[in-house]
Amino acid sequence: MGKRDIPEVNAGSMADIAFLLLIFFLVTTTMDTDSGLARMLPPPVPADEPPPPPIKERNVFEVLINAQNRLLVEGEPMDLSQLRDAAKEFIENPLNESNLPEKEEKEIPYFGIVPVSKGVISLQNDRGTQYQMYLSVQNELAAAYNELRDELARRKFGKKFNELDEDKQEAIRDIYPQRISEAEPKNVGGK
Predict the structure, then answer these.
(1) 62 bridge partner residues
(2) Where along the chain do its domains lie?
(3) 135 CB contacts (<8 Å, ≥6 apart)?
(4) What is the value of pTM for the model shown?
(5) CA-to-CA distance for 104 and 116, rounded, in angstroms?
(6) What's the distance, CA 172 to chain centroid?
């Protein structure tokens, strides 16, 4: 008696179909993008470099966010809606008040010799602070710098800051450098 041949299934086309399905799903699937804050981190400090000198109290604008998402600015409770204006006044110190940051004269292209603030905004939050509140505070502080830069660009060049060429933007950034120091979250207290 003869042996019957078992018919074979052509698997070559199945591999092609599987490959096409794989490509289809890769192309049509959307990936979640990371969200967060765009910040340029400072370069690492060499181990042999001495620590920087302490910053004078008047040159630091202290912003604290506690676990209940309440804002404490310079030791006083403050509403989030007031933060931007308070930060702008600190950064600019228009009347050269003795309780606001010192200024140093710098040579800035397009502007000549200009007094530039030595002020630093210190932002610290509690471990229990909600991320949304932290982002809101960050946005208000960044908006303070952006508004000051925009106002100066309009006064000097008659244009918005983002409409200026890179050299002019850099000159304005030199007058209003964004100095926000963020400490590691800890229990900052307050009820």
Answers:
(1) 122
(2) 57-182
(3) 37
(4) 0.72
(5) 5
(6) 18
